[in-house]
Amino acid sequence: MTRRQRERAVRAAQYLVLLAAVGVFAALADWGRINDAFFDVDVIRELWPEIITVALKNTVLYTLCAFAFGLVLGLVIALMRLSPVAAYRALATVYIEFFRGVPALLVLIGFGYGIPIALNTELPGGVLGTITIALGLVAAAYMAETFRAGIQAVPKGQMEAARSLGMSHTWAMVSIIVPQAFRIILPPLTNELVLLTKDSSLVYLLGVTLPTRELAKFGRDSLNQYVSMTPILIAGLAYLIITVPLGYVVRRLEAQQAKAR
Amino acid sequence: MIEIRELHKSFGDLEVLKGIDFRVAEGEVVCVIGPSGSGKSTLLRCINLLETPTAGEVVIGEDVVTDPDVDIDAIRRRIGMVFQQFNLFPHLTVTENLTIAQRRVLGRAKAEAERVAAQNLERVGLSDKADAYPAQLSGGQQQRAAIARALAMGPELMLFDEPTSSLDPEIVGDVLAVMRGLAQDGMTMIVVTHEMSFAREVADRVVFMDDGVILEEGAAEQVIGSPGHDRTRRFLARVLDPAAAELD
Description:
The complex is a heterodimer of chains A (261) and B (248). Chain A contains twelve helices and no strands. Chain A is mainly alpha-helical. In chain A, helix 7 (126-153) packs antiparallel against helix 10 and helix 8 runs antiparallel to helix 9. Chain A is flat and about 70 Å long. With 248 residues, chain B is α/β, with parallel strands linked by helices. Helices cover 35% and strands 24% of the residues of chain B. Chain B has helices at 40-47, 72-76, 94-104, 110-123, 139-151, 172-184, 196-202, 220-225, 230-240, and strands at residues 2-11, 14-24, 29-33, 55-60, 63-64, 79-82, 157-161, 188-192, 205-210, 213-218. In chain B, strand 4 and strand 5 form a beta hairpin. In chain B, helix 3 crosses helix 4. Chains A and B meet through helix 8 and helix 9 of A and helix 2, strand 6, helix 3 and helix 5 of B.
């Protein structure tokens, strides 16, 4: 056998093994039961339309609010981290270490229950306000580090060119450095958004009501109500409705910006 | 128009400028030559305070640049700088590169800034590239765009930091032609360069720097044609005929 023939034989064998494994699984599985548990059409009909109009809408709403808050705060923290003022740098470092090291779940409980007890007042905006602040604070810590890396990845000559044209440090940052940093960090920023989308399911800790339920809570409630796994599967698919197009949009953005690099 | 007195600059323990005294009159074109590490670029960067001098004074017109109370942004507006690496803003089109500082720093309206940008792009022969991004331009075109960007601010003085050193030899001429045009229009220019024929042809005065001091200065013919110093001679021999140069 020549080397090429040998390679072909090995590849064919690999495909055969995969086919055999799939075949064995398909033959052994009890399709009737699986179908009843995961694809119960009656249950799907019951979930409609609340899964979209309430659950999906709330997931997107919680995520976007927390992301927007985290993005702005993260940029501020990153600029503090790079500031010539030592006190700002120290403050930013402490912030990042704290909120990056503590589980989001604890932060959410702290803001949901700790603050109302300690200050005898609720955070504004109810469930939405609390999750925006708590998850946004955590996301800001991650995004601050991402921003810092992105800002430092912009060549030094860019700042020098901007300053030599008479721009102030702040203007140069805002109009020259940060826009270029954004492009560099678009992929890790997308990751953060996807992670937040899933972390928004932690909102159940705050004790949500029917109109404030999001996808994960909605799925679990329906699981108890209909004694079927179908809502869990559908809720899972609904997350993909958010994240898969997001990935597509970001890839398009990156391709578009490639020419301006 | 520029006067530099007893300028010193150190980076840590390394003293790069060891007392520079140097004047440039209005409309004068001065080429600064010398080996790598002699402090030429640092001198240039001290003039618009991209580097902060350790000691000494830089005076431009009436303004003491090195005075800590001076509004450095206001002074930089009057000084155009061209870098070896072009440093165009890659996320902006060529026109936007030329208008952003006009609008943000000089407060010009969009239409006015674009009119000035178009004028200066024509001056450097890049009118057809107005809407391109820097990455779509060749090195020589990028450098000409960078010159136009500096000119759009209407500077009194232009600093060139080895503007042709990262260009392919066959396109160096385009950039030099633009600079020659500027010199003929009476622009005050300080050019750090290794282009001896350009220095000979365009410079009113040539300054030879070595090891942080000005070793020799004078008319181009004199410094390049018949240098008084041994080190100047050795440097010129190496630059003008690299293949024949001997090792020290």
